[in-house]
């Protein structure tokens, strides 16, 4: 599902980047001992979490309203097109052309508006997911340290086994304690880029 597709990458990236976070003085000790691998199912954590369900509920509700809005305008455009067709015998060629061109302009503006609103909703979803990702990173680090792990992988990259190494339940518990809701608000690409630039 698109609500959570990016979450699979978090633990994978976390595991690959972990070595770079360690102090240089700790590198020899890290390299000398065997790697302790832990696993997390980030997709399941997001789907089962309070904040994940909150985001999904908001997204579905807003998408439903957007579809209803689009259907209403589309029905109006269809009715107007039929009216023009019914009146074509009564109109001069010039008047008919003007009405058709005006209708085509409205239809193009409608399509552009719906595309922009849909994109803004998707970007709002991306921003909300990003906030959950930001909350998960320190949780991953905490649990990894407490469990004595050195590498964390997402369940999606594990071909078999690993049930006894799964820390998903603990990650879920901590995420629920720290975050239960996030406002999902449509955002323009310009607004999102400005926020990302300011956060750097």
Describe the structure.
- The chain has helices at about 10-20, 25-30, 40-50, 50-85, 95-145, 170-180, 190-200; strands spanning about 35-40, 150-155.
- The chain has about 200 residues and is mostly helical.
- The chain has one domain (about 5-200).
- The chain has a two-stranded parallel ribbon.
- Residues about 1-5 and about 10-30 have low confidence and may be disordered.
Overview features:
mainly alpha; two-stranded parallel ribbon; 2 strands; disordered N terminus
Q: What is the string of helix and strand elements?
A: HHEHHHEHH
- Report the portion of residues in β strands: under 5%
* Euclidean distance between termini CA atoms: 28 Å
Q: In order across it, which strands form the biggest sheet?
A: 1-2
Low-confidence stretches: 1-5, 9-31
Q: How would you sum up the global shape?
A: elongated
Helix-and-strand structural type = mainly alpha
Q: Average pLDDT, to the nearest integer?
A: 84
Number of domains: 1
Report the helical percentage: over 70%
Q: Strand count, sense and closure of the main sheet?
A: 2 strands, parallel
